[in-house]
Amino acid sequence: MSRLEICNITKQYKKKKALDNVSCTFTEGINTLLGANGAGKSTLMSIISTAASPTLGEVRLDGEEIISLGEKYRELMAMLFQHQPYFPSVKVNEFMRYNAQLKGIPPKKIPELTEKTLQRLGVGECGSMKMKELSGGMRQRVFLAQTIISDPKIIILDEPSAGLDIAERAELKGIIKELGDNAAVIISTHIVSDIEDITDRLFIIEKGRLLWSGGAGDVPKGDISGFYLKMTEREKS
Amino acid sequence: MIRCILRSSLSRSLSAFILIFMITFLYIYLGTREELNFFDCQKKYISDKAPHDFFEQLTADEATARADFFDIHVNHKGFDDGSENDKTATDSEEDIPGILTGGNKTYSDAAVLWVKLKEAEPGKFADTMGEDYDFMQFMLSAYTPYGTLSDNARELIAANEKMLRRTSTSDKDRIICTYELELLKRINSSPDTVPPVSGAESFLNRFNGDFIFIFFLVLLCCGMFAAHRRSGYINSIKTMKCGLKKFVANQLFSHIILFTAGYLLYSLLYFLLMLPYLGDLSILGCPAQVLPQMQFSVYPITVGEYMLILFGIKYLYFLALTCLFGLISMLMPHDMAALAVSGVIGIIPLIFAVTETNGDFIEAVSGNAAAFIDRSDILVVFESAIPLAIVMAAVYLAAAGILFALTYICGIMQFCTVRGKAVSADA
B244-278 vs B198-206: helix axis angle to the nearest 10? Predict the structure, then answer.
């Protein structure tokens, strides 16, 4: 079981402190970073994904600092960006193959893995379609498929439901829930309904500080939405 | 006699040259214009920008294409909560593809893989964004050599040192980097600078096969032994006042003089036509793609010297072709037949160039030595091209010698038969 520890992370930009001494631990299951826009969720995600380095503090995977793990860490981790880059005129299968090869998956295994992963996410029949021909929900599933094709142990999803309609959001929730069965899924969102019912742990961030963290069961009456509002209002006052 | 032959051949060679010049001009004008229109992006770089500004512009445009390709700018806005300007030096954009892909890939790795997949499976992996990025990558790699040698060396040193610092660099790559660094340390800063001349490159590429000049040679040489043919071998041998050998040698020599004059004029035109694109005389029209290789050269050679060697090698190559076409003229029954055969032989290099036959050796032996030399680096010029050009010239001359001997023997046999018949008739 992978255990990702965030130890006293501070991220200082020239004028602004984006994260202020944040500490928390992500384990297998669904971990949700909940916070308003500009709260520091994306900065934390970027540090976890090694795109940015913290001003202070460190991130550890099973006790080892992630920067020292280098490529090994990258192999265990996969990230779905809020605005995932893609090639509009490329077919889904080609997109998957390109990404799989970049991830270092042996070419012989790629067709089978691609088919299996696309099937798992319910877009098995889209292989020969161009990326631009897919609906928003289907494209997001394809993005998720390329994210998990290498069977990562840490999956980072930055606003995965952005741009999806209600039905697509509901379907995506089910898929994310499944991913949490054998990986530590870290979701960043500001929409509570996206993670209600599926999250195992909750981390509320506001103005760069971690306001609250705990299991979904620890939320009073299981009302995440009400609890989140209460916490943020208390912080504002 | 040479003067006489020269006088008789001059009008033909002049008309051939004028014809060739017209074709060349139209070819270059239309061809280059078409090419430049096709590459709108490239057109933008044909300007009188200083090298430094040119690089800045090109690098910025490449970065934009790269950002479009990976959609990086959008992601970074998300990452940094809009605080793009506050990014610290430790936030490495170079790592983004690695994060995207879960590996340790750089932009270059990702782009190389993309191109490989595209090449391996034509028709697939076709995307405008990818193509734009490919093109800008190509532009950047093609034009980097236009900096000063010392600038290029500095960039290469930095790139190699970066590779060595990366923990993920393989042992094999480390050995290569260390070796390259050793070589790079030998480079002294050179005053040679090359201006930003994208037009010149397409211009140079047009000349790669030099088939236009070969066409001129064909026209010049197809009638080299016209007089010889008209009088027939027997008469040539019968009238041995000047001697067949002397006649042949003089014909060859006079045509070599004409060809040399044509070559000098051709080189001058080549250079003058290129001037508007170059805007600077310092490089003497050197194919700039050789500059990176020149940095690694252990030979203390300047760009100008390199150009002289290149023109010298091409001269040898054309000299060998002149001999070959002269031989064809000698063997063929009519000028038109000589023109056709020489034309077919002359066009072979073009066919090879067009079909992009791989393998330098095949190109060299097929006669496309000029293209072979143009694309080669300085080490190849010294280690392969010169010996190859010499071998080729020797082979052509030997073949010419053998065929000439055979022809001579046939002529004597024919002469003996005729004399025998005459003697019998007298008897």
Answer: 160
DSSP helix/strand/coil, A65: strand
CA distances to B35, B47, B354 from B135, in Å:
14, 19, 21
Q: Is B113 on the interface with A (CB under 8 A)?
A: yes
Pair B259, B319: CB distance under 8 Å: yes
Interface contact B167, partner A, CB < 8 A: yes
Contact A90 B127 (CB under 8 A): yes
Q: What is the model's pTM? A: 0.49
pLDDT tens by residue, A166-217: 888 888 888 888 888 889 999 988 888 888 888 999 999 988 899 899 988 8
Distance CA B359, CA B364 (A): 9
Taking the Cβ of residue B114 and every Cβ of chain A, the question of whether any pair is shorter than 8 Å is answered with: yes
Backbone angles phi, psi at A24, to 5 degrees: -165, 170
Residue B69: half-sphere exposure toward Cβ, Cα within 13 Å: 24
Taking an 8 Å cut-off on Cβ atoms, the answer to whether A43 and B129 are in contact is no
* Residue B94, token pair as written in the block: 């170079």
- The CATH code of domain A3-83+153-235 reads 3.40.50.300
How far apart CA B405 and CA B408 sit, in angstroms, is 5
Residue B338 CB contacts under 8 Å (≥ 6 apart), including other chains: B221, B222, B223, B325, B328, B329, B331, B332
Virtual torsion, Cα A46, A48, A51, A54, nearest 10 deg:
90
Give the integer Cα–Cα distance in Å for A151 and A103: 11
Chain A residues with CB under 8 Å of B97 CB are 102
**So where are chain A's domains?**
3-83+153-235
